[in-house]
Write a structure and sequence with these properties.
With 257 residues, this protein is an all-alpha fold. The chain is built from 14 helices and no strands. The longest helix is centred in the middle third of the chain and has 27 residues. This is F-box domain-containing protein.
Length: 257
């Protein structure tokens, strides 16, 4: 069939308003194909008014028609959940939910969602009223951390006999970040470090040839002042062995050195 050149371009002679109305019923793949025909149709297919109308009017009407269309006898043409299960579209977890009556849109699901919204609103209203009255209770995580801290404190007190022994103030005893079960090991480690430090200081003083008596007296008046006041048990536990120094001075007295 032969078509005259004027008849070929007759579609382009149609007013753009009518063309936009016709293009509004096409899907995006069809519009993309039309853009390759001519520059004029490409301009119309990319018109923002066309796509706005498709999003606000055409697409909702299509969804409404697909969901609620009826057959000649008035029956719904949309497949039910049972039909989807039979066709294999809904399976596994969705099938179990359909059997239990908790699928989306069921009566049980609607009741659960309504209960969730009610509890959320009641919790928010109670929090707002508490803030307005100035009696806001502490959050749950603060309550849990407080109870856990109290439990660890009681356990540490029972493990340590209810006392707080130490060569100097035990900072870890009052720290909530340290478990009370680790306090005995921390105390023992601090005793060892302090004892090794004092032993190293004494060995350096004896080996360097300085006056040990004056050095020891200065240490007793300075750093060792608090330790001496703690009693004989603390001195014996902290200070290093002095048997070598005692034998040295005894040898000086007898003239054997």
């Amino acid at each position: 069939m032969y078509i005259e050149p004027r008849a070929r371009g007759s579609l382009l002679n149609v007013p753009p308003e009518i063309l936009l109305r016709l293009l509004s019923f096409l899907d995006l793949p069809d519009l993309f194909s039309i853009t390759k025909v001519s520059h004029y149709l490409r301009t119309l297919a990319s018109d923002p008014i066309l796509h706005t109308e498709r999003l606000r009017i055409i697409a909702p009407s299509r969804v409404n028609h697909s969901l609620f269309r009826r057959g000649p006898k008035g029956e719904l043409l949309r497949p039910t959940v049972e039909d989807l299960v039979r066709q294999g579209v809904m399976k596994y977890l969705g099938l179990r939910g359909w059997r239990e009556g908790v699928y989306l849109g069921s009566t049980v699901f609607v009741k659960q969602y309504g209960l969730y919204v009610y509890l959320q609103r009641r919790s928010a209203s109670r929090a707002i009223m508490s803030v307005q009255l100035g009696v806001l209770p502490p959050p749950n995580h603060q309550k849990r951390s407080r109870s856990r801290r109290q439990r660890e404190t009681s356990e540490g007190t029972q493990a340590g006999g209810g006392k707080m022994p130490g060569p100097y103030p035990d900072v870890e005893f009052f720290s909530p970040a340290i478990s009370r079960r680790l306090l005995p090991a921390i105390r023992e480690l601090k005793w060892c470090l302090r004892r090794d430090q004092l032993a190293k200081t004494t060995r350096l003083a004896v080996g360097s040839g300085v006056d040990v008596d004056s050095h020891l007296s200065k240490w007793m008046e300075g750093t060792g002042y608090g330790i001496v006041e703690d009693g004989e048990r603390v001195r014996l536990a902290v200070c290093p062995g002095v048997g070598r120094i005692v034998r040295f001075y005894e040898g000086l007295g007898t003239g054997t050195q």
